[in-house]
Specification:
0% strand; mainly alpha; 13 helices
């Protein structure tokens, strides 16, 4: 991404892949449609704030879109854009596909959240409670959380508080994405935060999660883990 035109074309491609119009992107990012049009055509520079605004809605953008901030689960979902687009269509039609047995990454969650239609969101809501596997239930609330519909906050919290297996996986994923420990270590910390190898580093990262505006799962997990870390932070 060396020139304004290169960056602009990447932003445009990511937006179009997610099925969002320029008008909708302007509404989501609070930049004007004409200004974003100039940025996407390389007529205006894509500032850091613009890129961050796009990534907030679409997930990471660029050649490493599906490599950054992955959780450390050994079977984490790693799919290219065309395959993810097919997965989104499958979810919209009522088939969870690989969501049923493969842990999704934060980047995949953001992509699907931007791509799914209303029927897909409804299927996620159903699967979050009644999904046949813990992986499906956990993936469902992760994607729902990135969709950031205020009406889903209660559902997400209910699942995290009521489904012990989902809670454990969600907490482990939160630890994993923030500090990149081995997955087994993350599972241990999810069960007992006082076992965190670097509790202060984890607490500092969690402090940012608990104030995220559009991610109910991360807010809840962040608060839960921070509470569990309190006994070891003063040592």
């Amino acid at each position: 991404m060396s020139t304004a035109e290169d960056v602009g074309s990447l932003l445009r491609a990511a937006r179009e892949d997610a099925g969002l119009s320029l008008t909708r992107m302007a509404q989501l990012t609070h930049y004007s449609k004409p200004y974003l049009g100039l940025v996407e055509r390389g007529r205006r520079p894509a500032t850091v704030d613009i890129v961050v605004a796009y990534e907030r809605e679409l997930g990471p953008i660029g050649d490493d879109m599906l490599k950054r901030r992955d959780i450390t689960h050994p079977r984490v979902m790693k799919l290219d854009r065309p395959t993810l687009t097919e997965l989104a269509r499958s979810i919209d039609s009522g088939d969870p596909g690989s969501l049923a047995n493969t842990p999704s990454s934060r980047n995949v969650d953001f992509f699907l959240a931007a791509k799914l239609n209303q029927s897909g969101a409804d299927h996620l809501r159903e699967w979050s409670r009644t999904g046949s596997t813990v992986t499906l239930r956990t993936n469902a609330i992760a994607v729902l959380s990135k969709m950031a519909h205020p009406e889903d906050t209660g559902l997400i919290i209910d699942v995290l508080e009521g489904d012990e297996k989902v809670r454990h996986l969600s907490l482990a994923s939160e630890v994993s994405k923030l500090v990149q420990h081995e997955w087994e270590v993350c599972l241990t910390v999810a069960k007992d935060p006082t076992k965190a190898p670097e509790p202060r580093k984890l607490a500092k990262a969690l402090g940012k999660e608990v104030v995220l505006e559009k991610d109910a799962e991360s807010r809840w997990c962040g608060a839960h883990l921070l509470t569990g870390l309190v006994p070891v932070l003063g040592r």
